[in-house]
Design a protein that fits this description.
The chain has 2 domains: 92 residues, Arc Repressor Mutant, subunit A (Orthogonal Bundle), CATH 1.10.10; 59 residues, no CATH class. Helix content is 57%, strand content 5%. The protein is built from 9 helices and 3 strands; from the N terminus they run ααβααββααααα. The C terminus is likely disordered.
């Protein structure tokens, strides 16, 4: 108790869940503004300089790195940020976090409403299609393509001569699973026209 006020106790496990929830949002943000790539290339950055170089609010940028530090993704050292013990695995999974929070966060926020049967009519939830598409390009390249092409390489098929062959093979896989054909490759490689936010390459 301090100054007559009984400060609430937050169990360590609860703090971990809370910090992880905030860090999940910070991961997607750090990817978008280029912080994860900068740290991957240089191992260190000056927070205020990075904020100034990317036209970011300095206080908000420090808060983003604090959220990442609380989850062990980065380490703070005075005005600098260094890669933390969980940086490498987070870097690899960053698109999954982006899909989860930036892409689907609105759905999770609406969970109390969408749980009710009376509300589950028509288009009863929304997700950010642009953010999902942005994340899914890297998710596909890092997690699905290697498995797909590993399987394909073991089949007795001729080598693909063009992207059209690859698209046809993908659609064949979708049909064999009982699903509708996948959209053309070009449909998933560029963000929707309605999306005006700058994203890193």
């Amino acid at each position: 108790m301090r100054n007559g006020i009984d400060r609430p106790r937050f169990p360590a496990r609860g703090r971990g869940v809370f910090n992880s929830a905030v860090a999940a949002a910070a991961i997607g943000a750090a990817w978008e503004v280029g912080a994860l790539d900068h740290l991957d290339q240089h191992g260190k950055l000056d927070i205020d300089q990075f904020a100034d170089d990317h036209d970011l609010d300095a206080d908000a940028t420090r808060a983003m790195f604090q959220a990442l530090a609380a989850a062990g993704i980065v380490e703070r050292s005075d005005v600098h940020v260094l890669t933390g013990p969980h940086f490498t695995e987070t870097l690899r999974a960053r698109s999954l976090f982006h899909w989860l929070v930036q892409g689907s966060g609105a759905l999770f926020a609406a969970m109390p409403r969408v749980l009710r049967r009376a509300n589950r009519t028509g288009r009863f939830y929304e997700r950010d299609a642009a953010a999902i598409g942005y994340a899914c390009r890297e998710i596909n390249a890092r997690f699905f393509d290697p498995v797909f092409w590993s399987v394909m390489s073991g089949l007795d098929f001729p080598s693909p001569a063009s992207p059209t062959w690859a698209a046809a093979a993908a659609n064949a896989c979708w049909r064999s699973s009982g699903r509708t054909p996948a959209p053309p490759a070009s449909a998933s490689t560029s963000p929707p026209r309605s999306w005006n936010s700058p994203r890193p390459n």
